[in-house]
Every structure is written in C-alpha cells, then in structure tokens.
Amino acid sequence: MKLLLFAVSLCGSLWAQEVHVFPVQGNVSMIVAPGGNITVQAGKEGMVVVDTQTAATAPQVMAAIRKLSETPIVWVINTSLDADHISGNEALLRLGGSSEASLRARVIAHENILNRLLAPGVAQARVADAASINDTYFRSPKDFLFNGEAVMVYHMPSAHTDGDSIVLFRKSDVLSVGDIFTPDRYPVIDLANGGSVQGLIDALNRILEMAVAGKYQEGGTFVIPGHGRLCDEADVVEFRDMVTIIRDRVQDMIKKGMTLDQVKAGKPSRDYDAQYSGSPDVFVESVYRSLATRKP
Amino acid sequence: MNKATMLMLSAMLPMFAQVDFSGEWAPLYHENGPERLPGPELGDYTELPLNDAGRLRADSWDADRISVVEQYQCRPHGSDYALRGLGNMRVWREIDPATQRLVGFRTHMLAWDSERIIYMDARPHPPEYANHTWQGFSTAVWEGNMLTVTTTHLKENYLRRNGVPRSDQATSTEHWIRHGDYLTVVTVIEDPVFLTEPLVRSDNWYLDPGQHIGIFGCEHAPELPKPEGVVPHHLPGTNPFLREISEWYGLPYEATRGGAETLYPEYRLKLNGYKAPPKCDRYCTCTTLFDCQLR
Asked: ipTM score of the complex?
C-alpha cells in the first residue's frame, strides 16, 4: 500500500512538469501545464481557448491542444492581466495557424486589463501583451455562440485584480474562473492592480450562484481553476469559506486596533497554512491592507 | 482428471481463495455509540491525533454552517467516515460480462444514497489534477482473506461530524475482514494537513439479508434569512461550547482536545489527581437506534 501511495505522490510531483489534456465535460477540456490551467472548447467551428500562459510554453501547450482538434483557435479569452495568462497569446495563435489577418482570432479581455497594461511605466513586454488583445469589453456579460454553445464572459470587479473575467460554457456546464479560485494555494489579491478581498469573496459567491451541483453536492457544474485540480461547487465552497473566515479574523483584529505586524504575528491563517501553498504572510497582508483601506 | 476439468477448476480457483462481501449488512454500534447515533458532542476531539491546525479548525466550526450554507445541507459523508455513520450497507460484485472477471465491489449506503466502487482490476488511480469526490477513488488487493482498500482523491470533509476536519490531501486504507456473518472494517486515515499520525478506527457489521434500504433523498433550501455569503464560524478563542463535553462527562478538558499523546495509556499518568465521576448520567446506554437515551 505504501508503495502505491508513494507512486501516487511521485506521479503528483511529475504531473506539474508536463502538459496534459484532461477532458472535463461536453466540449470542454482542461490543459494542465506547468504554469497553470488552460481551458479549451473544441468543435467544428474551431476552438475557444481561455488563458494562454507564456510564449515559452506555447509549443507544448499547442501540441496538447492539437490532441483535441485540428481546427484553428478562433477565440481567446484572458481571465486576468497576469503574464502567465496572457503572454502566450501571440505565440499560441501563431502556432495555431490563426495569426494572419484573415484568420485572426478574437482575443477578449476586460478593458481594465488593457488600461493597466498600457499605463505609463509598464514594462515593454507587458505592452506587447496588451497588443495581443484585440477585443475588450466593459459591459458584463460579453457573450457569443460558438460550436453550438453559448459562451458567456462575466467581469468580476475588484477580485484578484480589477480586470478579472470568468467564462461560462453554458451547454457543457463548465466554468473557467482563472486565479479567482486556486484550490491548493492562497489567492493572490493584487491590490496594486485593483484587487480586494471583498471583491474576491463576492466573485467566489457569484461562482457559487452560477454553479449547480449534481446529486448530493457533487459534479454538476465543473469549475476549472487558474491553478490546481479540476473542481466542482463543493470545492469552491471550501475555498470561499477559507477566504471569508480569514477575512473575518483579520477584520476582528483590525477592530481591536492591531497593527499589520501584530496581525501577522497572530497568525490568523495558521489552521489553513498546511493546506494552501503560497506565503501566509503575503496573503494576510493583502487581506489586512485591503480591509484597512476600505471606505466605510 | 481430464484437461477440461482442470481448466475449469483453475478458472474457479480465485473465487474460492477469496472472500465475497456481497450482501446486506447492518451496522453494530457497540463501539462509539454516542458519537455515531445521536452524533458527537461539540468539542469532542478524543481519540483523534489532531495537530494544532485541525484543533483550531474544529474550534472555529459553527454547527449553523450546515443549515445556513445551503451547499452543506446535502453534503454526504466521505467514504472514510460513511462506514461509521448511520445506516445500513449493501455490497455487491461488479463482474465484467465479457471476461467474467471481478471488476470490483460496489457499496450502497443508506446515508445520502452514497455509492462507491472499489476497483480490483489493477487500474491506476487518476492523475492528481483529476477532480475529487466524496467517495474518492478506491482500489483494492487481497492480503490473504483480507481485502485492503486504498482510497485517494477524497473531497475535503470531516473526521468527526462536529467540525473536526479531514483535508482533501488525505488518503485512507481500509482492511475488510469477514468472519462468517460478521464484517469488520478497519480504517486507517493519513492526513498530512490535520493529523500527526494515522487515525485508526474499526467498525463492525452483521449480515442481515432481509433488510431494506430506503431512499435517502435530500433537497437543499434556504432555512434562514441571511445576508449573501455568510459563513458561520467562531473567531479563535470565542467558541462557548468547547468545555461542555469536559463538564458533562467529568473529563479533564485537556484530554478532550485530542492529539496523539492522548490516545495512549501512558497519558493517564499525566492526569494526576483525576477522579472519574461517581456515576454516568449522559448517554449511558447507547448501542442501538432505540436505546440511545440522553438521560
């Protein structure tokens, strides 16, 4: 038995190094790559790809996508402005044969992403990322019909950043939610780019509203996180509870007049630290700063 | 003996060498009756090798959560807990019609109609990025006449249904042992997040061919008006119910807090001056659904 568990854990450490294709439900599959997850909806009309990782991973990712379909990538949706979600746009589209003007894919992101990537002082590489986006939206949801399925892109204001989107594949019943939900690691609340803990909790609650569990709270709507394993509503509940409880603890400590250093020393996330990777201090600090600067 | 007979006998051999768990099984509650029948007391972490994280998570748990948060209302036991939860069990064999080989055992539990398959066809466990389920993914091998089951891919759930957590990184190993009309299942849970050492517990069943398992059924619905996204919990140090078990049962508070040390007989030596209460006055008889009385 120990041998089996060792083998399972060894597989676990190896899977993160490779790119895998994992069919989810309906027309939707999850590409599991070293830097996170990519969602692909494939059909006769072509493919929708949610997030593209980086130029460096694009050949491996494209090889994996080709196991699903030989059709071109027609839509790309970026769920946040992070480089590991956008920086593969151009390379992936080139490899996917849709870089010529006549075949040019539509690359969708919330307009806040473009605004931030084009702000003064942003690194040149990020300006190139911005150039790969050709179809911003500001009214949520942005929707279109593709491969006989409604694809709905919802803006989640001020969550991980202020430009986050989640994507509902309505017929396949799959949500692709980017870094708003990362089941095995603490969320990154990017305050500098408009994120907030309350926005993150609101977004998680919105995901829970949209997801419908199957019999006895299992299956039904599947949720593809930005990083980590395939999930469903019950897994989002656990994550939402964690963020909410830590938010409440930090809020209580602020009410008692504790400084950031005192809050960190109090370790309000200590019963979650072994379960979620990432720096507890960074997460707690982002929660503290988000709450401390919130308008009453 | 002709070749055809020998071939037939050799084909049958595996069936005789192994044990069949098929049948209708009723649980025996002679162990841990109060925990399993009325349900565990709040703050009861006895017999659990919890670490500090598990203890704080349990202290923070508010029983209102299973009512206020709709997604908890129909949440079933995990397979590692279901065997000690309430309800009867049906076991049957899944046979591949093409090869007549055993694919695995299936189980059906009364509670939440939970169904599970324990694969015995040497298939691998899913990759780490696959979704987790309440029952997890189980494979089994024979060790003599004992079936040893390994389960991975469990959803986060509880070690005890008073908020003591079990993480989604846990694995469980079950040993199924049949003695005539009795079945013993020893479960070993390893959880790197909340336990400092494996949690071992056993449950017993008796064969009850005439039993009927009804439909459980569950529909979640708002039970209380509440603001959006409320998650009931106790802030650290504020749970008012944690000392109840100590007071009600006359136990040292420290002993109710769990931890590996409290599992072993040597722990008694640390309880200097402890005197057991003169008489039992809470759940003193509790071995079946019908005789489990609070007073």
From this structure: 0.93
